[in-house]
Amino acid sequence: MLYLLTEFSTGGDVFNLFRYITFRAGGAFLTALVFGFLFGRPLINILRRKQGKGQPIRDDGPQTHFAKAGTPTMGGLLILSALFFSTLMWARLDNPYVWIILLVTMAFGLIGFADDYAKVTKQNTKGVSGKVRFSLGLAIAALASFAASSFHPAELTNQLAFPFFKDALLNLWWFFIPFGMVVIVGAANAVNLTDGLDGLAIMPVMIAATTFGIIAYVVGNYNYTQYLGVHFVPGTGEILIFTAALAGGGLGFLWYNAPPAAVFMGDTGSLALGGALGAIAVCTKHEIVLAIVGGLFVVEALSVIIQVAYFKRTGKRVFLMAPIHHHFEKKGWAEPQIVIRFWIISLILALIGLATLKVR
Q1: Would you call 31 exposed, middle or buried from its count of C-beta atoms within 10 A (0-12, 13-18, 19+)?
Q2: Distance CA 341, CA 339 (A)
Q3: In the chain, pLDDT over 70 holds for what percent of residues?
Protein backbone atom coordinates (compact mmCIF):
# COMPACT_ATOMS: atom_id res chain seq x y z
CA MET A 1 0.00 0.00 0.00
CA LEU A 2 2.74 2.45 0.95
CA TYR A 3 4.48 1.65 -2.32
CA LEU A 4 1.88 3.87 -3.99
CA LEU A 5 3.68 6.86 -2.44
CA THR A 6 6.33 6.44 -5.12
CA GLU A 7 3.88 8.04 -7.54
CA PHE A 8 4.60 11.33 -5.77
CA SER A 9 8.36 10.91 -6.13
CA THR A 10 10.39 13.07 -8.48
CA GLY A 11 13.61 11.23 -7.63
CA GLY A 12 15.90 11.84 -4.69
CA ASP A 13 13.08 12.64 -2.25
CA VAL A 14 11.68 10.72 0.70
CA PHE A 15 8.99 9.08 -1.42
CA ASN A 16 11.66 7.46 -3.55
CA LEU A 17 12.69 5.34 -0.57
CA PHE A 18 9.54 3.25 -0.99
CA ARG A 19 10.88 1.91 -4.28
CA TYR A 20 13.52 -0.05 -2.41
CA ILE A 21 12.59 -3.53 -1.21
CA THR A 22 15.16 -3.39 1.59
CA PHE A 23 13.69 -0.17 2.99
CA ARG A 24 10.18 -1.55 2.90
CA ALA A 25 11.36 -4.83 4.44
CA GLY A 26 12.78 -2.88 7.39
CA GLY A 27 9.50 -1.02 7.71
CA ALA A 28 7.54 -4.28 7.58
CA PHE A 29 9.67 -5.80 10.32
CA LEU A 30 9.29 -2.84 12.67
CA THR A 31 5.57 -2.49 11.98
CA ALA A 32 4.89 -6.15 12.77
CA LEU A 33 7.09 -6.01 15.86
CA VAL A 34 5.32 -2.94 17.28
CA PHE A 35 1.96 -4.49 16.39
CA GLY A 36 2.89 -7.57 18.43
CA PHE A 37 3.96 -5.54 21.43
CA LEU A 38 0.87 -3.32 21.33
CA PHE A 39 -1.80 -5.98 20.85
CA GLY A 40 -0.16 -9.04 22.42
CA ARG A 41 -1.36 -8.53 25.98
CA PRO A 42 -4.93 -7.46 25.07
CA LEU A 43 -5.28 -10.50 22.77
CA ILE A 44 -3.98 -12.86 25.45
CA ASN A 45 -6.47 -11.44 27.96
CA ILE A 46 -9.32 -11.97 25.49
CA LEU A 47 -8.23 -15.54 24.74
CA ARG A 48 -7.94 -16.32 28.45
CA ARG A 49 -11.46 -15.05 29.13
CA LYS A 50 -13.00 -16.83 26.15
CA GLN A 51 -11.21 -20.16 26.55
CA GLY A 52 -11.52 -20.70 30.28
CA LYS A 53 -9.46 -23.86 30.82
CA GLY A 54 -7.23 -23.06 27.85
CA GLN A 55 -5.58 -25.69 25.67
CA PRO A 56 -6.15 -29.27 26.88
CA ILE A 57 -2.98 -31.13 27.90
CA ARG A 58 -2.27 -34.66 26.67
CA ASP A 59 -2.58 -37.28 29.42
CA ASP A 60 0.33 -39.32 27.99
CA GLY A 61 2.67 -36.34 27.67
CA PRO A 62 5.61 -35.38 29.87
CA GLN A 63 4.63 -34.71 33.48
CA THR A 64 6.08 -31.19 33.36
CA HIS A 65 3.38 -30.17 30.86
CA PHE A 66 0.58 -30.50 33.41
CA ALA A 67 1.84 -27.31 35.04
CA LYS A 68 0.88 -25.50 31.82
CA ALA A 69 -2.80 -26.31 32.22
CA GLY A 70 -4.98 -23.24 31.74
CA THR A 71 -2.64 -21.54 29.26
CA PRO A 72 -4.69 -20.13 26.36
CA THR A 73 -3.99 -21.17 22.78
CA MET A 74 -4.57 -19.59 19.33
CA GLY A 75 -1.66 -17.21 19.95
CA GLY A 76 -0.94 -17.60 16.25
CA LEU A 77 -3.65 -14.99 15.74
CA LEU A 78 -1.20 -12.39 17.03
CA ILE A 79 1.50 -13.43 14.57
CA LEU A 80 -0.88 -13.64 11.63
CA SER A 81 -2.53 -10.30 12.41
CA ALA A 82 0.83 -8.55 12.59
CA LEU A 83 2.03 -10.39 9.50
CA PHE A 84 -0.98 -9.54 7.34
CA PHE A 85 -1.26 -5.93 8.49
CA SER A 86 2.43 -5.26 7.91
CA THR A 87 2.65 -7.09 4.57
CA LEU A 88 -0.41 -5.35 3.16
CA MET A 89 0.99 -2.01 4.28
CA TRP A 90 4.52 -2.40 2.91
CA ALA A 91 4.44 -4.87 0.01
CA ARG A 92 3.59 -4.22 -3.61
CA LEU A 93 0.06 -5.51 -3.91
CA ASP A 94 0.39 -6.11 -7.65
CA ASN A 95 2.89 -8.91 -7.00
CA PRO A 96 1.32 -12.37 -7.55
CA TYR A 97 3.77 -14.23 -5.32
CA VAL A 98 2.85 -12.07 -2.33
CA TRP A 99 -0.81 -12.94 -2.79
CA ILE A 100 -0.14 -16.65 -3.29
CA ILE A 101 1.80 -16.82 -0.02
CA LEU A 102 -0.69 -14.63 1.88
CA LEU A 103 -3.64 -16.77 0.76
CA VAL A 104 -1.86 -20.02 1.61
CA THR A 105 -1.03 -18.62 5.04
CA MET A 106 -4.61 -17.50 5.60
CA ALA A 107 -6.11 -20.79 4.43
CA PHE A 108 -3.88 -22.96 6.62
CA GLY A 109 -4.45 -20.54 9.48
CA LEU A 110 -8.21 -21.08 9.16
CA ILE A 111 -7.72 -24.86 9.26
CA GLY A 112 -5.60 -24.47 12.37
CA PHE A 113 -8.10 -22.10 13.96
CA ALA A 114 -10.91 -24.63 13.43
CA ASP A 115 -8.75 -27.33 15.01
CA ASP A 116 -7.83 -25.16 18.01
CA TYR A 117 -11.46 -24.09 18.45
CA ALA A 118 -12.63 -27.70 18.48
CA LYS A 119 -9.99 -28.66 21.06
CA VAL A 120 -10.81 -25.76 23.37
CA THR A 121 -14.60 -26.01 23.19
CA LYS A 122 -14.64 -29.81 23.59
CA GLN A 123 -11.64 -29.86 25.95
CA ASN A 124 -10.27 -32.70 23.87
CA THR A 125 -6.83 -32.98 22.27
CA LYS A 126 -8.19 -34.56 19.07
CA GLY A 127 -9.75 -31.49 17.45
CA VAL A 128 -10.65 -31.63 13.75
CA SER A 129 -10.19 -34.97 12.01
CA GLY A 130 -6.69 -35.47 10.61
CA LYS A 131 -8.17 -36.64 7.30
CA VAL A 132 -10.19 -33.45 6.96
CA ARG A 133 -7.20 -31.23 7.74
CA PHE A 134 -4.97 -33.19 5.38
CA SER A 135 -7.50 -33.12 2.53
CA LEU A 136 -8.10 -29.38 2.85
CA GLY A 137 -4.35 -28.78 3.02
CA LEU A 138 -3.79 -30.75 -0.19
CA ALA A 139 -6.47 -28.76 -2.00
CA ILE A 140 -4.96 -25.45 -0.91
CA ALA A 141 -1.45 -26.59 -1.83
CA ALA A 142 -2.60 -27.80 -5.26
CA LEU A 143 -4.07 -24.39 -6.08
CA ALA A 144 -0.99 -22.58 -4.78
CA SER A 145 1.41 -24.82 -6.73
CA PHE A 146 -0.58 -24.34 -9.92
CA ALA A 147 -0.68 -20.58 -9.43
CA ALA A 148 3.05 -20.37 -8.73
CA SER A 149 3.91 -22.43 -11.81
CA SER A 150 1.69 -20.13 -13.89
CA PHE A 151 3.77 -17.10 -12.93
CA HIS A 152 7.18 -18.73 -13.18
CA PRO A 153 9.30 -17.88 -16.25
CA ALA A 154 8.66 -20.25 -19.18
CA GLU A 155 12.09 -21.85 -18.85
CA LEU A 156 11.42 -22.68 -15.18
CA THR A 157 7.78 -23.73 -15.35
CA ASN A 158 7.29 -27.17 -13.78
CA GLN A 159 11.06 -27.50 -13.34
CA LEU A 160 12.78 -28.74 -10.20
CA ALA A 161 16.03 -26.91 -9.44
CA PHE A 162 18.85 -28.60 -7.55
CA PRO A 163 21.08 -26.79 -5.04
CA PHE A 164 24.87 -26.87 -5.54
CA PHE A 165 24.39 -27.32 -9.32
CA LYS A 166 24.36 -24.26 -11.57
CA ASP A 167 22.19 -25.44 -14.47
CA ALA A 168 20.62 -28.64 -13.15
CA LEU A 169 16.89 -28.75 -13.80
CA LEU A 170 14.47 -31.66 -13.85
CA ASN A 171 11.23 -31.24 -15.77
CA LEU A 172 8.48 -32.69 -13.59
CA TRP A 173 5.75 -31.91 -16.13
CA TRP A 174 2.37 -32.20 -14.43
CA PHE A 175 4.03 -33.96 -11.48
CA PHE A 176 5.16 -30.51 -10.33
CA ILE A 177 1.72 -29.85 -8.83
CA PRO A 178 1.74 -33.01 -6.64
CA PHE A 179 5.34 -32.25 -5.74
CA GLY A 180 4.41 -28.72 -4.66
CA MET A 181 1.54 -30.15 -2.65
CA VAL A 182 3.93 -32.42 -0.75
CA VAL A 183 6.28 -29.49 -0.06
CA ILE A 184 3.57 -27.15 1.25
CA VAL A 185 1.52 -29.68 3.22
CA GLY A 186 4.66 -31.36 4.50
CA ALA A 187 6.08 -28.05 5.74
CA ALA A 188 2.78 -27.11 7.41
CA ASN A 189 2.52 -30.39 9.30
CA ALA A 190 6.23 -30.54 10.16
CA VAL A 191 6.09 -27.12 11.83
CA ASN A 192 2.89 -28.17 13.56
CA LEU A 193 4.63 -31.23 15.03
CA THR A 194 7.56 -29.09 16.19
CA ASP A 195 5.29 -26.75 18.16
CA GLY A 196 5.35 -28.67 21.43
CA LEU A 197 7.46 -26.58 23.81
CA ASP A 198 7.42 -22.89 24.74
CA GLY A 199 9.22 -20.99 21.99
CA LEU A 200 10.45 -24.14 20.24
CA ALA A 201 8.75 -23.63 16.86
CA ILE A 202 8.61 -19.86 16.44
CA MET A 203 12.35 -19.14 16.46
CA PRO A 204 13.24 -21.84 13.86
CA VAL A 205 10.33 -20.54 11.76
CA MET A 206 11.73 -17.00 11.94
CA ILE A 207 15.21 -18.24 11.10
CA ALA A 208 13.92 -20.22 8.12
CA ALA A 209 11.73 -17.32 6.96
CA THR A 210 14.61 -14.83 7.19
CA THR A 211 16.82 -17.22 5.24
CA PHE A 212 14.21 -17.62 2.53
CA GLY A 213 13.65 -13.88 2.49
CA ILE A 214 17.32 -13.47 1.54
CA ILE A 215 17.01 -16.25 -1.04
CA ALA A 216 13.87 -14.66 -2.50
CA TYR A 217 15.58 -11.26 -2.73
CA VAL A 218 18.60 -12.77 -4.50
CA VAL A 219 16.53 -14.93 -6.85
CA GLY A 220 14.42 -11.92 -7.81
CA ASN A 221 17.43 -9.75 -8.69
CA TYR A 222 18.88 -10.42 -12.14
CA ASN A 223 22.36 -9.13 -11.30
CA TYR A 224 22.67 -11.32 -8.22
CA THR A 225 21.46 -14.40 -10.05
CA GLN A 226 24.02 -13.87 -12.81
CA TYR A 227 26.83 -13.47 -10.30
CA LEU A 228 25.82 -16.45 -8.15
CA GLY A 229 24.64 -18.72 -10.94
CA VAL A 230 21.14 -19.26 -9.57
CA HIS A 231 17.90 -19.23 -11.53
CA PHE A 232 16.24 -15.84 -11.99
CA VAL A 233 12.58 -15.68 -10.92
CA PRO A 234 11.32 -12.12 -11.51
CA GLY A 235 9.15 -10.68 -8.76
CA THR A 236 10.21 -12.94 -5.91
CA GLY A 237 12.23 -10.17 -4.28
CA GLU A 238 8.97 -8.79 -2.91
CA ILE A 239 8.65 -11.91 -0.75
CA LEU A 240 11.31 -10.37 1.49
CA ILE A 241 8.61 -7.98 2.75
CA PHE A 242 6.49 -10.93 3.87
CA THR A 243 9.36 -12.72 5.60
CA ALA A 244 10.47 -9.54 7.35
CA ALA A 245 6.93 -9.04 8.63
CA LEU A 246 6.89 -12.66 9.78
CA ALA A 247 10.12 -12.16 11.68
CA GLY A 248 8.80 -9.02 13.36
CA GLY A 249 5.49 -10.60 14.26
CA GLY A 250 7.28 -13.71 15.47
CA LEU A 251 9.47 -11.71 17.83
CA GLY A 252 6.41 -9.90 19.15
CA PHE A 253 4.81 -13.28 19.86
CA LEU A 254 7.98 -14.76 21.36
CA TRP A 255 7.94 -11.99 23.98
CA TYR A 256 4.82 -13.66 25.39
CA ASN A 257 5.67 -17.26 24.44
CA ALA A 258 9.06 -17.40 26.18
CA PRO A 259 9.01 -19.90 29.08
CA PRO A 260 6.71 -19.91 30.89
CA ALA A 261 4.43 -19.14 27.96
CA ALA A 262 1.53 -16.74 28.49
CA VAL A 263 -0.07 -18.13 25.31
CA PHE A 264 0.49 -21.05 22.95
CA MET A 265 0.81 -20.57 19.21
CA GLY A 266 -1.62 -23.39 18.52
CA ASP A 267 -2.38 -24.94 15.16
CA THR A 268 -3.63 -21.51 14.10
CA GLY A 269 -0.04 -20.33 13.93
CA SER A 270 1.98 -23.48 13.28
CA LEU A 271 0.00 -24.73 10.28
CA ALA A 272 -0.17 -21.24 8.78
CA LEU A 273 3.54 -20.48 9.16
CA GLY A 274 4.59 -23.92 7.96
CA GLY A 275 2.36 -23.59 4.92
CA ALA A 276 3.87 -20.16 4.25
CA LEU A 277 7.41 -21.58 4.27
CA GLY A 278 6.38 -24.29 1.83
CA ALA A 279 4.71 -21.77 -0.48
CA ILE A 280 7.79 -19.52 -0.43
CA ALA A 281 10.00 -22.48 -1.36
CA VAL A 282 7.74 -23.35 -4.30
CA CYS A 283 7.57 -19.73 -5.49
CA THR A 284 11.34 -19.25 -5.37
CA LYS A 285 12.15 -22.65 -6.94
CA HIS A 286 14.08 -23.67 -3.81
CA GLU A 287 11.98 -26.58 -2.64
CA ILE A 288 14.94 -28.85 -1.90
CA VAL A 289 16.72 -26.09 0.00
CA LEU A 290 13.72 -25.92 2.34
CA ALA A 291 14.56 -29.46 3.47
CA ILE A 292 18.00 -28.15 4.47
CA VAL A 293 16.98 -24.86 6.06
CA GLY A 294 13.99 -26.50 7.73
CA GLY A 295 15.94 -29.62 8.61
CA LEU A 296 14.79 -29.41 12.23
CA PHE A 297 11.17 -29.64 11.10
CA VAL A 298 12.06 -32.58 8.85
CA VAL A 299 13.65 -34.46 11.76
CA GLU A 300 10.63 -33.78 13.98
CA ALA A 301 8.27 -35.13 11.31
CA LEU A 302 10.45 -38.15 10.57
CA SER A 303 10.62 -39.04 14.25
CA VAL A 304 6.83 -39.35 14.31
CA ILE A 305 6.72 -41.36 11.07
CA ILE A 306 9.44 -43.72 12.29
CA GLN A 307 7.82 -44.12 15.69
CA VAL A 308 4.39 -44.96 14.27
CA ALA A 309 5.70 -47.29 11.55
CA TYR A 310 8.03 -49.19 13.89
CA PHE A 311 5.38 -49.53 16.60
CA LYS A 312 2.83 -50.94 14.13
CA ARG A 313 5.39 -53.42 12.88
CA THR A 314 6.98 -54.56 16.16
CA GLY A 315 4.85 -53.20 19.01
CA LYS A 316 7.95 -51.39 20.31
CA ARG A 317 9.08 -47.77 20.24
CA VAL A 318 12.25 -46.26 18.79
CA PHE A 319 11.92 -43.07 20.85
CA LEU A 320 10.69 -42.67 24.40
CA MET A 321 8.09 -40.35 22.92
CA ALA A 322 7.57 -38.62 19.57
CA PRO A 323 8.03 -35.97 18.24
CA ILE A 324 11.70 -36.13 19.12
CA HIS A 325 11.72 -33.08 21.43
CA HIS A 326 9.53 -35.10 23.81
CA HIS A 327 12.09 -37.91 23.66
CA PHE A 328 14.69 -35.58 25.12
CA GLU A 329 12.21 -34.39 27.76
CA LYS A 330 11.70 -38.01 28.80
CA LYS A 331 15.49 -38.39 29.03
CA GLY A 332 15.57 -35.59 31.59
CA TRP A 333 16.57 -32.58 29.49
CA ALA A 334 15.12 -29.31 30.78
CA GLU A 335 12.72 -27.55 28.44
CA PRO A 336 14.88 -24.41 27.94
CA GLN A 337 17.86 -26.68 27.23
CA ILE A 338 15.99 -28.44 24.42
CA VAL A 339 14.59 -25.22 22.99
CA ILE A 340 17.89 -23.33 22.84
CA ARG A 341 19.80 -26.29 21.41
CA PHE A 342 17.18 -26.73 18.72
CA TRP A 343 17.46 -23.01 17.94
CA ILE A 344 21.21 -23.42 17.49
CA ILE A 345 20.68 -26.35 15.14
CA SER A 346 18.18 -24.29 13.12
CA LEU A 347 20.68 -21.46 12.76
CA ILE A 348 23.41 -23.83 11.57
CA LEU A 349 21.06 -25.38 9.00
CA ALA A 350 20.04 -21.93 7.80
CA LEU A 351 23.67 -21.00 7.16
CA ILE A 352 24.14 -24.21 5.20
CA GLY A 353 21.04 -23.37 3.20
CA LEU A 354 22.38 -19.90 2.40
CA ALA A 355 25.66 -21.47 1.31
CA THR A 356 23.79 -23.21 -1.53
CA LEU A 357 23.51 -19.81 -3.21
CA LYS A 358 27.27 -19.58 -3.62
CA VAL A 359 28.45 -23.18 -3.82
CA ARG A 360 27.62 -23.99 -7.44
Answers
A1: buried
A2: 6
A3: 97
